[in-house]
Amino acid sequence: MAKKKRIHWAECQTFPHFFEPKYHELLQGFPLKGKWHPDFFSKPSPITLEVGCGKAEFTVHQARKFPQRNFVGVDIKGARMWKGASIALKEGLQNTAFIRTHIQNLPLIFAPGEVEEIWIPFPDPQPNKPGERKRLTSPNLLEVYRKILHPNHLIHLKTDNRPFFEYTLEIIARDNHQLIYATDDLYASDFNGIVKEVTTFYEAQWLAQGSKIHYVQFRLNGIG
Question: What does the alpha-carbon distance between residue 56 and residue 193 come to, in Å, rounded to a whole number?
Fold first, then answer.
C-alpha cells in the first residue's frame, strides 16, 4: 500500500493542475496568488475550495456540474488527491486544480476575496483536546479562511462525528458567525443541494454502518 501511495504521489507531481509549493517558495511569493484568473483558470469566477479534500469527490462533482466556476482541492497528503486529480485530467476538466499544502498556508496561495466558498467534507474530528487547533472549524483556522474569503461567501461542513458537529455550532454561536443552516441528520432532512449529491469514500462506509450525517452551512462575521 505504501508503494502504491508513493506511485500515486509521484504521478500527481506530473499533472499540470497539481501544485506542491515549498514553504520558502510561498514566502517568496506564489505566482498564482491573486492571479488564478487569468494565469491558470480561463474563467473569472470566484474559487470554491475543498479543504482536506482527500479523494476530492466534491471538487470533481462540482467541476462537472458547474463548468463556469473554478474548483480547487487542498490536502496535505498528495497521494489521496491522485484519484480526483487523475479523473479531472482524464475528463479534461479545465476548471480544477489541486494543491498539496498545509491549511495554514492558504493566505500565501490565495488573495483576499479570491475564494467564495469552502467545503469541509468529513475532516478528522481531532477528538483530543490538544488537537483542537487542528480542527478545520477551529477559531484559528476560521481566521485563516477569513484572509481569503469573499464577503459573499459560504462555508460547508459535512461530518458523521456528532461532537465535532456540536463543537462547530458552539464556535459559530460563541463568535457571532452567521449560521445559515444546520441538521444533525442530513438525509432525513428536507434540505436539498450539492451536499446530498456527493457521497465520499468515507461517508459511504459510515452510512453503511447506520451513522447519521451532520451538515452545517455558515458565514464568518466581519468580512467586507
Answer: 18
* Amino acid, res. 198: V
Q: pLDDT tens digits for 91-108?
A: 999 999 999 999 999 999
Q: What is 2-219's CATH number, 3.40.50.150, 3.20.20.150, 3.20.20.60, 3.30.420.40?
A: 3.40.50.150
The C-alpha atoms of residue 59 and residue 209 are separated, in whole angstroms, by 25
- Kindly give the interhelix angle for 78-91 and 2-12, rounded to the nearest 10 degrees: 50
Angstrom distance (rounded) from CA 146 to CA 197: 27
3-state secondary structure of 38: helix
Enumerate residues 6+ apart whose C-beta is below 8 A from 193.
none
Catalytic residues: 124
